[in-house]
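Researcher: Go.
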Amino acid sequence: MKTSAIILSCALWTTALLAQSTVSLDRAIELVGQGELSAAKLMLKSLANDTVHRGAAHFWLGKIAMRQKHYDAAITSFEQAVAYSPEKDDHLMELFAAYAAAAKQAKPTQAKALFDKLTRTLQAAVIRMPDSPKPRLILATFYAQTPKELGGDIDSAVREARILIQMDPYRGRIFLGKMFADHKRLDEAKTEYAEALLLRPDDVTARLRLGPILQDEKIFAEAHSLYNQVLQLEPGNLIALYQLGRLAALSGQFSDEGLASLERFLADDSKDKPCPAAAAYWRMGNIMENKQDLRLARQFYDKALAADPKYSEAETSLRRLKEKSAKTP
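Model: Structure:
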């Protein structure tokens, strides 16, 4: 009985400690959100030796260091987080971000050393978790976004993405589509987005990524159809609303629909809009200029500059409009 009582007592004590450390971690994360970084840092350092929460503690210490722009400290913390919790994809992603931030401030030779170390870290993560798509995606992103002299390589990015497609077909297609678009390989980008749509017919991401490519290639009717499909799937989608306005401005078509879409875009009070109000007003000015209503065009350009006095596109359009008006008898 005494032995059983001791075992039970130890189990209860361990459970209590675990619950207490969980509460402490939650409180530390809450303090980070409130901007109380010094207090959060003290709590997280005390949890860094906790066998259950040390991975999370180092992760949040890294987040604090990133916010304070102490990138070397962030790298150290995120490396510890990855070591203690290798299954956490976000730990690896934040480590990638910390290396990239540190490299931007480093001298060229130091930046190369940082990225060499990052490459080895990402490759090791892929080997350690061969069946997990996220490390593969992060490695492919590294190859795609990093300058060649620092280890970037498009062919390697494509190779990793092709492997990713076997593990997560949709995510791999979306990644390849964006990468090809970023590198102006537009036919390949369109193919990948089309494949993504076959995998997920109700997907909006592929439609929103494909639309601007079609606009730039002046395939306006197809782009118009894609944006309206997005609005059928997600009424009020701000990207689609803005892009319908942009489409009307670029094409000279769908003018009334474009204006109505931009009005809906401006009426939305979301804080995280995909582009500023000035851009929407400027596009409205473009539409009215296409319709030869120079008075309304000027009003919209003025509204764009009222929203952002430094919005250069509106400044240029307004200056051109004034010159055009001066030449008109």
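Model: The longest helix spans residues 2-33.
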